[in-house]
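pinging the channel bc i need a second pair of eyes. not urgent but kinda urgent?? the chain im working w is below, pasted from the shared doc
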Amino acid sequence: MSRIGKIERKTNETNVSVRIELDGAGIYTIKTGVGFLDHMLAQTARHGFIDAEIACSGDLEVDCHHVVEDTGICLGLAFAKALGAKEGIRRYGSATVPMDEALALCAIDFSGRPYLAFNCAFAPGKLGDMDAEMVEEFFRAFCVSAGANLHIKSLAGKNGHHMAEAVFKAFGQALEQAVTRDLRILGARSTKGIL
């Protein structure tokens, strides 16, 4: 049975459409108007085996904040929808990924309790056409909407592009582990019986 999450969200600031399939091959079409974000989300889809169609138009004449944050919100909502009651999933995933001199760690728990621990020291300024500070805002928006506990840590790195790319690749691999179904898991993987 396919696990698909589809979300459309329109505000006065952005118009976002997200469709994901968790049991995919990492095929993606991503156009948010923020090239660096598109590149990072492509890494997540490819390394997480998530088929993704993501489109966003927004008030980029202001800055990239609303587009990046709202894309994170909608991606999180799409994951929540695709996972449903989260029965049979491994729930946890983690990955440590190198990218040249950079090294990033990502660990996720689809616990239903949103929390972000973000420890990445990006230099102030831009990563391509995206403000570096928006990396954290993207993940915070995702966590809240997906109901996920997410820890991200940059263990090494000097080049901001490499650091961010390692983070998003690690995020993809951690997602793939966490959403994988395991026949040994009956119901939700929790002593509470639900997630």
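so Residues 160-179 form the longest helix (20 residues). and Helices lie at 35-48, 65-83, 134-146, 160-179. — does that match what u expected or am i reading it wrong
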